[in-house]
Amino acid sequence: MLRSAQKRIETGRAAMTRPLEGVRVLDFSEHGFVPSAAAALGDFGADVVKIERLAGDAMRRIIASGMVATKDGYDFQFELFNRNKRGIALDVEQPAGREIFEKLVRWAEVYITNQLPRVRRKLRTEPADIFALNPTIVYARGHGQGQRGPDAEAGGFDGVSYWARGGVAHVLTDADATRPTKQRPALGDGPSGMFLAGGICAGLVHVGRTGKGIVVDTSLLGSAAWTLGPDLAYTTLAGGQMPMAADEQISPLVRQYRTVDGRWVSLMMIDEARYWEQACRALGLDDLVPRFPDPASRRAGWPVIHERINAVITALDHVELEAKLRAQGCIFSFFATPMEVVADPAVVANGYLMQHPEHPDVRLAAAPVQFDDELPAARRAGPTLGQHSREVLTELGYGETEILRLLDDKVIAEP
């Protein structure tokens, strides 16, 4: 059983609403992928302490994709991956800093890192080093390509390890395109971080059952392979890339159409037999029902059916089309802009975006897992560099005189 869970039982505390409340997490990672896993654990209720170098997480200084990352001192990129954490700025290479680090490892139930093997060896943060300090800890690490193989020592970011090397860019780029499809910021980081967070939760169960620590690994490349599972399975089966179906090979009920006001809509009625009559009624094409009564006749008539459906949809605006499709229970969606996603009633009602505790107009994507119908919340803003150094050291038993000396010696930092 987890130490934190055992303590709650022993002290008679009532069950808490967030499943990881009281679980102690030490996050020694940078950038987006692995910190996002720790942020998810924070969303789930864990007490997350983030260690940063005195210079700060590199994410604090990154400007990529032409984006302006800050507004009025607010850095949305750092915040997205570091909300619901406390932060300590610590030089772990100084003896006094190493002592603090080791105390934090003994305090924690989960240790998270994205350090490369050579850095782990230098800083003595390999699994064996951490287990020597805390044999029941969950040691979680994220990597670009994986801990084994020829590139175990090589770094990687989602634009390389997930998007490019993982094949995602290739399958999302049209064959006749002159340039690859552009990646959106951190497209592979968020999903990969959730995979790591899930692995950590499984690791906590393992520790609870066995009393032994465990190493949890995932990588951006492995995440891409999972994402492209159907493509890769087909490739191994057929010995080549899964072909893109020609228009005449795609069901008219599983296609994209464009309305008269320029909005793209995706129909996704995969179970054609179930939705055939509904779709025809919605679009005023009742005459097609008796004309194509079974799967074989519909398959042979796909070109005709598509032409008729396209003629109807291209004459309607998106408001008219939505009303018709909804009335018959059809499965569809218009291609939404980010502004439309933010305002989507389902997104709002389900709490998929959290209000920032200090910037009420800002919405952050929440970890997309909820428990007991409780909506996630950003209880704590991402820490400024060293914001909680003094608080964390006090909890570890350091007195004011010691803390001031550590500040003077540049072992720790605070704002």
UniProtKB/TrEMBL annotation:
Gene3D superfamilies listed in its UniProt record: Crotonobetainyl-coa:carnitine coa-transferase, domain 1, formyl-coa transferase, domain 3
GO molecular function: formyl-CoA transferase activity
Keywords: Transferase
EC top class named in words: transferase
Enzyme Commission number(s) of this protein: 2.8.3.16
Classification via InterPro entries: CoA-transferase_III, CoA-Trfase_fam_III, CoA-Trfase_III_dom3_sf, CoA-Trfase_III_dom_1_sf
Highest taxon of the lineage: Bacteria
Pfam families: CoA_transf_3
Transferase listed as a keyword: yes
Database matches in PANTHER family: E-CINNAMOYL-COA:R-PHENYLLACTATE COA TRANSFERASE LARGE SUBUNIT, SUCCINYL-COA--D-CITRAMALATE COA-TRANSFERASE
Full protein name: Formyl-CoA transferase
Organism taxonomic ancestry: Bacteria, Bacillati, Actinomycetota, Actinomycetes, Frankiales
